[in-house]
Each structure stands twice: as structure tokens, then as C-alpha cells.
Amino acid sequence: ASYDMGGHDTYMHKEISEQPDAVDRVLRGRIDDRFNTVHLGGLNLDPREARGIRRVKILGCGTSYHAGLIGAGLIESLARIPADAEPASEFRYRNPVVDPDTLYIAVSQSGETYDVLAAVQELKRKGGRVLGVVNVVGSAIAREADGGTYVHAGPEVCVVSTKCFTNTVVAFALIALHLGRIRDLSVAEGRRIIEGLRKLPGQISEILETEGEIKKLAEQYADAKSMMFIGRVRGYPVALEASLKLKEISYIHAEAYPASELKHGPLALIEPALPTVAIVPDDELLEKNRAAMEEIKARSGRILAVAHREQEKADHTIVVPKNEDELDPILMGIPLQLLAYHTALALGRDIDKPRNLAKSVTVE
Ligand code: AGP
Fold it and tell me: Could you read off the pLDDT of 112-141 as tens digits, one per residue?
């Protein structure tokens, strides 16, 4: 399919820019201000069933897996149900124990990724209950699942996913809030998250306005042969996704580590030629993240921080607006999409068609 680029040079740029509207769409019509909850009829879960869920297992590939990691964190913190995410193909090949009290969630932009579809089919064959968090309406995974929710990102043409990642994470926040309010999340806490969700489109627009600064930073770091991305807990999947984005379109090698793991090995790599992007939200882990930056500085590593205020330990800081702690990862991912974009542009890459990659991988 080909869609109008609407004045943008690439689909990637167009899709990054569409995020305020896309997030508005995934929220629309779903928030219940009377009970401070969310309506997601497509989940086909009645409250009694929802209370019986003992675990949540999220499956996806690539960027959708990363969105699932953030989703698992949201479900654990808001609904207090143990949750984790795993690459769909790994799950399928380790002959998983399929448990009737586990809610399985398959995540996919295209809804056609073979490894995810095969995992869904394997789960259903073993009697598992599977929901889909999918962008393309009527796609194979959406049809196979027992229910689910569409993320309403709109058509995503660029091979690398941006707006769909953001919308998928917002969809997980809605699912987490929905499950949380059926279980133990209070009215006041429900209100707090709803207010945070409503701020997202405006805050994303604010971040997009800083593109000029991010472009300058990208040009300064584009000479790196390799880059390190670090974060902790909620920030770690943001680091994983940002490093994937950079690899896919700039071909710069990148790896993501939990900041706490640096001292267990990767610190040996740190030197001026290996810059680090650090995810540093103003939350309970701020001091820990600062300590990690200090360790990097002591080895003369360059640091670009994404934070809620200027970080004196970093060489440069991209300041993003603060939301509720649980929703911060959504915003912290956005400037790093632009960083990958402008790095690839500075290196003259074919951004919409990176080498060796296809938009959806429908074979094993
Ligand atoms: C995203 O930038 C990637 N090109 C890729 O990792 C993608 O997310 C993955 O192949 C899964 O695709 P899906 O969401 O359509 O299932």
C-alpha cells in the first residue's frame, strides 16, 4: 500500500509526527470518568474471570516484544498480577507449560508475524486463553485470538515501528488500568492514571517540538561505531527499544543493558569512543541511575541522558515532560526515535527501507 507522505521526506518521520493523534485515538471512547476505569469490551473478560487470573504472559517479536515488556510492568504495578514478556518464538520452542489461570497476550503491529501466530495456535491447542493487542484490524492474529484490543495507530508503512510501539504501550496501560480497577486499584489511583493518560498527546507534541535540538545531538553522536543504552526497571525496555531502532536504520551497533548490570561486565567496554544513552527518569531510581552515570564518567565515557531535568553527570541531556512514574516510559521513548532517525539521516541511510529487513515477517 502507498499512502500520502503529507509533506514528510520519509514515512518514518511522518509516523513519528502522527503520535499525538494516534495516542488520542487509542484513548478515545474508552475512559470511564464515573468509575475511573477503562472499558475494553473486546477483551471478553467478565470481572469474575478477571479476578481469577494469576499470571499474565505477553508474547511478541522485536519492537512488539519491547512494548510487551513495558506492558508487563504496567500490569504488575497497576493490577498487581505477576506478568512478564517473552519473544514469541522462544516461548513456542521451549514447550511451555500452559496454565489455565494464566492470561496470554499476543502483541503484533501487522497481526501476521509467523512466530507470534504460531505461538497463539500452540496456546489454543493446549487450552490457553489468548488475547491479541494488534494494530491491523481483521489480521490473522486478531482473528485467532479469543478477544483483545486494537491499538488504533493507523497504517504504519515504515519498516521500523514507531507510532505503533507507542500506541501499543498506551493500550497496555488501558488494559492494566482495566484489570487493576477490577482488582485492587483504588478509585483515586485510577483517577491519577487517567489524568496521566490524558496528558500524553500534549506532552508528545512538546517533545516533537524539540526535534531541532535532537537533530544536532544525533549529528554529534553519529560518528560512533557502537552505542550503549542503559535504563533500570521501567527504563530498561525503553533502552532496548531505542537500541533496536538505532541498529535497524543507522546500522550502528548498539546494545542495551540494565544500568545495574554494567558492573557485571559491560563496564569493560566503556571508553570515549563508546557513548552511552542513559534513561534517567525522576523516580525512585534516580540516585541509582546517577551513580551509574558516574561510573561511566570515571571511565571517560560520553553520556547522553534522557531525563526530566538537566543531568550534570551527562554531557548532554534531552529533557522530556514528567508524567506519572508508570507512564514515563511512553514519553522517554519518543526523543530516541528522533535520535535514531537523525543519526540515520546524517549517515545517509535509506530510512524507510533498511537493508535485510521486511515490514512483517510471515515466515519462520
Ligand atoms: C520494528 O521496528 C521491527 N522492524 C520488528 O522488530 C517488528 O517489530 C517485528 O518484526 C514484529 O512485527 P509485528 O509487530 O508486526 O508482529
Answer: 999 999 999 999 999 999 999 999 999 999
359 is catalytic: yes
In this structure, which residue's CA is closest to atom 4 in ligand 1?
160
Cβ of 323 closer than 6 Å to ligand 1, yes or no, is no
Q: Is the dihedral of CA 16, 22, 26, 32 positive or negative?
A: positive
Cα–Cα dist 18/16, whole Å: 6
Judge whether 351 and 343 are in contact, CB under 8 Å: no
Q: How far is the CA of 206 from the centre of ligand 1 (A)?
A: 27
Are 109 and 4 contacting, i.e. CB atoms less than 8 angstroms apart? no
> Can you tell me the distance from the alpha carbon of 52 to that of 100, in angstroms, rounded to the nearest whole number?
10
Tell me if 335 sits within 8 A of 207, measured CB to CB.
Answer: yes
Q: Is the ipTM of this complex over 0.90?
A: yes
Distance (Å, rounded) from C-alpha 72 to C-alpha 9? Answer: 35
The secondary structure of 210-255 as a DSSP string is THHHHHHHHHHHTT-SEEEEEE-TTHHHHHHHHHHHHHHHH--EEE
| Spatial distance between the Cα atoms of 133 and 145, rounded to a whole number of angstroms | 9
The secondary structure of 145-194 as a DSSP string is: SSEEEE-------SSS-SHHHHHHHHHHHHHHHHHHHHTT--HHHHHHHH
Alpha carbon of 292 to ligand 1 centroid (Å):
31
Q: Which residues contact 185 (CB under 8 A, 6 or more apart)?
A: 78, 79, 177
Question: Which residue's CA is the closest to the ligand 1 atom numbered 3?
Answer: 160
Q: Distance from the CA of 358 to the center of ligand 1, in angstroms?
A: 9
Task: Provide the pLDDT confidence category of residue 2 given band limits of 50, 70 and 90.
Answer: low
Which one, of 280, 302, 195, 197, lies nearest residue 234 by Cα?
280
Q: Is the pLDDT of residue 1 over 60?
A: no
- Is residue 248 in contact with ligand 1, taking CB distance under 6 Å? yes
Whether the full predicted model's pTM is greater than 0.95, yes or no, is: yes
